[in-house]
Write a structure and sequence with these properties.
Layout: H1 8-23, E1 33-39, E2 42-46, E3 48-49, E4 63-67, E5 79-80, H2 85-94, E6 100-104, H3 107-115, H4 128-136, E7 140-141, H5 150-160, E8 165-168, E9 172-177, H6 180-203, H7 212-215, H8 222-245
Length: about 250
Amino acid sequence: MIVHDDGLELRSTVATACRVLAARGLVDGVLGHVSARVADAELVVRCRGDEERGLGLSDPGEVWRFTLDGEPVDAPAAFSPPNELPLHAELLRSRPEVGAVVHAHPPAALLVGLAGLEPRPVFGAYNIPAMRLALEGVPVYERSVLITRRELAVEMVKAMGGSPTCLLRGHGITVAAESVEQATVLAVNLNELLVVTVELARLGARPPEVSAEDLAELPDLGSEFNDRLAWQAMVAGLESRSASLS
């Protein structure tokens, strides 16, 4: 089971992930949330407060600890967990290999789901991790509902199976990984796949899938490259953007 220390560093990482998702267009305003497991039956999650400013301005003071049953552990009364906390809780409860969960509302996910488009592995070196998501297949949860109850979360987890991703039709995406950094990078790559899927549909194009010969030439660059370096670049992009606005 993946367990993280719930100290300031983890809370800061969750807040940073929220800012990355906002900067990349996966979340807007106050919709979307990121969580991390900190104990067998507890997590930290980005909450909403009385002076809410949106996910794009998240800070560690908006990330608080709750049980998987939704009971506050250290959250002040001014902060509430997301209504869809059961989405995070059920994934952590049912899949011990998961250490972090991202739920976001990318516009491309909405369009792919409503149009019934299938993400296909039609590009290669452009974005190898995103291509591999298409190869593995992106499961779909068919109900366009807020996942505010455990029963609905169980349905979503069942639809997701053992996949790290799930498209929620008419709603958004759910992504699960070992760490917040991995989950965030994975969500960004999934969004890239969905954006390409939408744009190809707009063009009326249906290119062939990457050949087996070309697939054999595409290496698995490993977590060091695909996760850590990608995360660092995304965080640096936030800092660059902040500097340009100041």
